Amino acid sequence: MNILVLNCGSSSAKFAVIDASSGRELVSGLAQRLGSAHASLDWKLDGARHKRDLHHADHDQALRTVLDLLKGIGHVEDLAGVGHRVVHGGARFSGSIPITAEVVARIKECIPLGPLHNPPNLLGIKIAQELLPDLPQVAVFDTAFHQTMPPQTYLYAVPYEWFEKHEVRRYGFHGTSHRYVSETAVRQLGLDPDDHAIVTAHLGNGCSLCAVRNGKSMDTTMGLTPLDGVVMGTRSGSIDPSIIAHMKRALHRSADDVMDALNLRSGLLGISGLSNDMRTLQEAAAEGHQRAALAIEKFNHSVAKAAAGMIVSLGRLDALVFTGGIGENAAAVRAKIVELLGFTGLELDPVANEAHGREQGGRISVGLRPQAAVIPTNEELMIALDSAAIIAQRG
Ligand code: ADP
Fold it and tell me: Rounded to whole angstroms, how far apart are CA atoms 362 and 367?
């Protein structure tokens, strides 16, 4: 069953056609810089990469071009449905769901919680419904997996009315990735499907950790928004909230300006003053750039400390799983985090750690409990599998 997976961002649209029965990706691509003179479409088909200028195309024009492309290679007629990534489902969605007018209305209600992400996600749904009116469409939420968290992990200790009236609580993100890698870890590491305790660390530009107990999220580091938690590429992660009021006064700026600095100019970029990109920082640190080295050190410490917190929410640790661009590729980062967590009994296998990565995941620790592993994430596959299961169920 072939599924078109769509992930629409503010100026981009990522797509893939995936055969959900085999898990094979038939074609995938990315339209980016939409709405600008430099709009372009890149795609990968049968191992070959292609590129086309889109000249000022918006989301609608870009998705029309994608569909023409899919038609040309015979992948529109055989589509069984469309699976959409939706970032914020609030507490309204605890799983993937077929898209109806009511579901669209409920996703709209979540816009105040996900003001940057939900509008382009909704635009993608609207365009796909117009272009492919006969196909079922499914919404897969970043937040849904975390709806199993207990109150002591999802509540913030703020006035309770903020939670009741304004939906202030921890929602968590990257749920599709945490779910995919924890399910894969159970199979690949030989864990008990009914009794396991896994910390998943999704370390990309955005970073979050999740405590997965018996297939359920019990805790996660991102919060009401993706700003909370560990140090990220450009986001600060958790800080003393008083810093916001202090910097507003110090800089004579608005709260929005300070929030922009915390979202866009902090994290690895903020500390290093050089880049948000881990690879660039590793190269710079190797050449003696001290703040690049400091940024990496702060990142490693922040992730290890958060992982230790996740273990409290699990009660024990069977496996620590690394994924995302940094988790899959930065062997030195993994080595340091495992070292910092040595008190849990984790012990790195340095040869395996260097050998495993995005191309091929695998165990990177010595001994069987706890274990550490790299498992490359595949959010598109998870969206395709969810969509196919829902479509098959509805007949
Ligand atoms: P996103 O969260 O935007 O999907 P990715 O998951 O692709 O991003 O992660 C991007 C991060 O992965 C960047 O910090 C990048 O430097 C890092 N990364 C990618 N490849 C490597 C590598 N070979 N070594 C170290 N870091 C890497």
Answer: 14
